[in-house]
Amino acid sequence: MNNTISNYKDVKNIINKDFVMIIAKSHTCSACQTIGDMLNNNVVGLEKIEKYNIYIDDMDEFRGEHLIFSVPTVLIFSEGKELLRESRYINYSKISRLIDLYKN
Q1: Can you tell me the mean pLDDT for 37-66?
Q2: What is the pTM of this model?
Q3: pLDDT by residue (tens digit) across 22-50?
Q4: Is the pLDDT of residue 55 over 80?
Q5: Looking at residue 2, what is its pLDDT?
Q6: What does the mean pLDDT of the chain come to?
Q7: What distance in Å separates the CA atoms of residue 46 and residue 49, rounded to the nearest whole number?
Q8: Contact, 35 vs 74, CB < 8 A?
Q9: 33: domain range?
Q10: Could you give the strand order of the β-sheet that contains 3-5, starting from the edge strand earlier in sequence?
Q11: Element containing residue 82 per DSSP (H, E)
Q12: Which residue in 53, 45, 92 sits closest to 71, CA to CA?
């Protein structure tokens, strides 16, 4: 389902795509390990968007540049602009509405 980004140089290229979701996780966060399943079960239209994982333990640059203070954090970008940020308690209907607006 998701690709894991392990190189910070790839982040810029991915963020500049048309419409992408990045899920910021930590290796020690138990909630982070199930976020993909929760998104699949609760977000309508999720298959229409590219999804990537970033483990912030391994990529401090991303954490600092995008001000990730808690995990899991779901970010949606379009052409380099952040459209949505949800942290910890994820509002799945908000993500579904945004996908519906951009992809329909």
Answers
A1: 90
A2: 0.89
A3: 999 999 988 888 888 888 888 988 888 99
A4: yes
A5: 61
A6: 90
A7: 6
A8: yes
A9: 3-103
A10: 3-5, 50-55, 20-25, 73-78, 81-87
A11: strand 81-87
A12: 53
What was the pLDDT predicted at 89?
87
**Amino acid at residue number 20:** V
* E strand map for 3-70: 3-5, 20-25, 50-55
The rounded distance, in Å, linking the Cα atoms of 29 and 9 is 25
Q: pLDDT band at residue 84, thresholds of 50, 70 and 90?
A: very high
Q: Which helix (H) or strand (E) holds 81?
A: strand 81-87
C-alpha 27/C-alpha 45 separation (Å) is 27
Q: What is the pLDDT of residue 23?
A: 94
Look at the chain and report how many structural domains it folds into. 1
Residues in the chain: 104
Give the domain CATH number at 13: 3.40.30.10
**Integer angstrom CA distances of residue 3 from 77, 82, 97, 101:** 16, 19, 23, 24
For residues 63 and 56, what is the distance between their CA atoms, to the nearest angstrom? 6
